[in-house]
């Protein structure tokens, strides 16, 4: 695996720094850090090998992989089960999409402490009402009261063990159509409540409202975005706006959807002849999952065992 | 979802027949039934929409999705957790790859009864030693004693509730290089021990050894194959050999691997501009996961609630 | 295990009737059915051996066993994991404490369909707001709007597969101090929304308000209670009131708490000498868990295996 | 909770030292450390409150709580799910019963790294063949080849992140009737393979064979025992033998079995009248689970929320 951030690491590629410390260091570097979305162990491994320095465990993508809607249909522990697979698949720090925290301040802090325990680097919580609906669906997005959400952030902060574990506050004010001033007010309130970074979300086709927010925000805390709809914006523009993190939240899953649809239709209609040359060989899969390492380890650890058997 | 086997079904597409009965009926139809491999809820939904009548919950693919090797690295309950997502994602019968049964007759029957409970249609058990290695990797495949594996099949049969739930016995004799006669002897022993079908596995690039087996077998039980390496064989040949089921075990996962690699490399190297038009839109994902049904149900079930709130 | 309701059952003590049908039949019998609370596989097995015909998978007790508070601190899938252990531990029908349904109509129906899938007989939902607090704690119990809760019940009914699976509507009107009329109005609304039975909950030290409710209810649906605080009421009184089910919800867990406290204090203070004769022997545990059956099965299923090895 | 080992701890009673470091320090103290068995969050909380400084997550007791036999009937991840509840229930270090490691060196190291990740202090592995049978049942205990088990220990050691995480090697040589010399040879081989402590197991009614082993061992590594059958031995004798840890492995579970049996029989035969005064009140349960802390936190974190709502 390519480890892009040069730290002293052990034989297995693991850093002595905590996942939270790694993520903080990345976001503090000049220019936006590119964070790749993952939804299971496989997509995490692929993203790590491609060179990304951090992962986003996407609620939409994990839900889709599980076969359910991104409307709190999977339980928070089911999602953390998938997060654990994402975390274990590489040595990269993982920022976890924690949705609204699955209830109140108490369920939220249970989620973040469990996420910390399984090795995540941070959790992003959004200021909507539980059960939430995916931000790209419909117009019924209801914002949580500011003070309630602030209390939730504070409770999470207080419950964590590692002071470097990141709490990212995501405001859905622009998604809910509440306007720039509301978005800024909320971000500031969340900063005061203890958030370590702000995720400002937009579903506009251009970067305009993000740009307005970023300029008015003036770097009070690291700022993250997920340019799913305004993907045509050049990366240089995100750098100019002083953004700390750019999350490619769902592209990997969407690529898999298209590929699996094609594979199924091709197999169903005509069999594997034309499909076969276009898909990964099994050896490619085995390389990705490091089967050779296991064969080597069998020699190392079982040699004596076979003598004794 | 296209339901290809015409049964009376309820409003949600579910048959009154048990999953096992559905699978048996499919395998009894003339010509080989095409069974599509799935590894999570998403891949299962896609396979169902493409028209396949049955699914294979692949051990290799579920392991890969979880980020681990197909060498019993995932626990049997972790795998059943994924199987449950495959089962819930469609109304199709699901045949579960049960590997070696995760130990002895007792762990095997715990696996199959749990698989039955969560709605699977059948389990395939293979005659290797636990922990196993994927059949396409290396040359160290050790076969279990015939009688031990027969006892395992009998214990599973006795523990099941639905007499239609299928126990498929997979012999790895050809994979282990033990020859055709051994493969046939084992298949016959497993038939006598209570297997409902036989899965004969080969990793040769041509269908030759499968064809020899099939002719000598003479249809004593339904015969299944997974033509991963001998994919160039035309479907008509499988029909001529009297095969009951053809499993496309891992093509969907392999297609996803290639697509996610491309997506990650493209995003990392140049951003989303050239990638975006080649991957599923979010609306396509929302259609696949039936978000509109949820919106409709909200109107149906929450209407009165909003009046009363 | 003693099976008190005489049905034709298979070799493993399992009835051909669905769990829901078994529970309905029990509640239809004259006189109140005694339902024993359980919180894991062990407590379920013990309750079944004692003769109880049905089990209550208690939210309070499962939460306590998990080490958390009965305030939706465990996720709904964690609780269903424990429910599965309760279900698998005996052949008895299990009524599951589903709390408020963990969100809205959609999370509730996901809970009940999953409960049905793992073999439960019914789910009880209560008309409070998520996250809930245990009914015996504090005075902040907020009732859900009637119509919203009715929509939740209807959504659950529509999503189930087995028409005999029971939806029990529990009103917390008396717990919330809303009075008898409100409790009756709510119960009637829930009946009209599709509930199969009503659970009327009270935390008064006497049966008075339960009695008033029962008389006014006039048997429109089967009525269940959990006499945790009004335990001094004789069973005959419950029969006179026409109750269908009496749930001993938490006594087994509370007995275990006292016993484990004593065991720990005794071991810590003086070692095992005086404790040992007061606790179950290991053989008693092995009998309860039927280790002899496994030994017998080893002979049955491994005999041939050992010859062949 | 009473914290008996005086360390600087945070507001929530957590030590800055790793769980492994805490456990090592305890075992290094003069005299045997008393380690209390636990099988779920509740039993762990009770043991911690009674004053024990460390916990044993018992395979027998967790299996029994789940309703299955201690013969690898629960999967390793199911057991780790219970271990996580034990770990989260207190600030005490938890030594995990890892049975045989659930297969080979590879499954064993997956188990120990996952145990480390969820916050355990160490894992104990035993030198029997998978699937194992509980040491107190029957005479069919088959020892693993020494070198194979040594390779397993080495693989676990190499895979761990925290050098203080403890690998305890348990030899079943005495249980299998292989004699003292074999037990000593195995313990020495496991020490050389990297074990941090040795668990010598016996099911004799007296301490004799443990005493012989301990004298011959001469303190080469910390020695642990579980005096389930030789419980009449005074603690002073264990101190004289230089033992580092005494595990009360299953007494708490056995106490719960007796209490729950009594409760069920009493409720079934006569109702709750005579039972009620003998079991913990709900308030006692709520104290144990710290419901008041949640009420306090609601005030702290929701106050502003309610203003804003």
Automatic annotation (TrEMBL), chains A, B, C, D:
- Name the keywords, alphabetized: Isomerase
Which SUPFAM superfamilies does this chain map to?
Phosphoenolpyruvate/pyruvate domain
**Enzyme nomenclature, EC number:** 5.4.2.9
Q: What is this protein called?
A: phosphoenolpyruvate mutase
Organism (species)? Nonomuraea longicatena
* Lineage: superkingdom: Bacteria
Q: Which Pfam families match?
A: PEP_mutase
Which family does the UniProt entry place this protein in?
Answer: Belongs to the isocitrate lyase/PEP mutase superfamily. PEP mutase family.
Main enzyme class: isomerase
Q: Which InterPro entries match?
A: ICL/PEPM (IPR039556), PEnolPyrv_PMutase_core (IPR012698), Pyrv/PenolPyrv_kinase-like_dom (IPR015813), Pyrv_kinase-like_dom_sf (IPR040442)
């Amino acid at each position: 695996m390519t480890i892009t951030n040069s730290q002293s690491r052990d034989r297995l590629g693991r850093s002595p720094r905590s996942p939270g410390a790694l993520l903080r260091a990345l976001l503090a570097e000049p220019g936006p850090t590119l964070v790749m979305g993952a939804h299971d162990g496989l997509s995490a491994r692929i993203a790590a090998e491609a060179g990304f320095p951090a992962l986003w465990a996407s609620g939409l993508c994990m839900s889709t992989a599980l076969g359910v809607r991104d409307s709190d249909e999977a339980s928070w522990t089911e999602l953390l089960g998938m997060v654990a697979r994402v975390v274990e698949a590489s040595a990269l720090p993982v920022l976890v999409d924690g949705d609204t925290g699955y209830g109140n301040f108490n369920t939220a802090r249970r989620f973040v402490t469990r996420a910390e325990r399984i090795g995540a680097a941070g959790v992003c919580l959004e200021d909507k009402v539980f059960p939430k609906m995916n931000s790209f669906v419909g117009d019924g997005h209801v914002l949580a009261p500011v003070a309630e959400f602030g209390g939730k952030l504070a409770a999470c902060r207080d419950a964590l063990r590692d002071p470097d574990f990141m709490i990212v506050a995501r405001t859905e004010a622009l998604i809910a159509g509440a306007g720039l001033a509301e978005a800024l007010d909320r971000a500031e309130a969340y900063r005061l409540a203890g958030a370590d970074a702000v995720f400002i979300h937009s579903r506009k086709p251009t970067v305009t409202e993000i740009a307005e927010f970023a300029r008015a925000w003036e770097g009070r805390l690291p700022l993250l975005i997920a340019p799913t709809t305004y993907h045509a914006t050049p990366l240089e523009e995100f750098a100019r706006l002083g953004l700390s993190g750019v999350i490619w939240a769902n592209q990997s899953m969407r690529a898999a959807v298209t590929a699996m649809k094609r594979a199924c239709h091709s197999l169903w209609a005509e069999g594997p002849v034309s499909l076969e040359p276009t898909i990964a060989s099994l050896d490619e899969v085995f390389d990705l999952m490091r089967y050779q390492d296991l064969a080597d380890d069998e020699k190392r650890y079982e040699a004596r065992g076979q003598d004794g058997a």
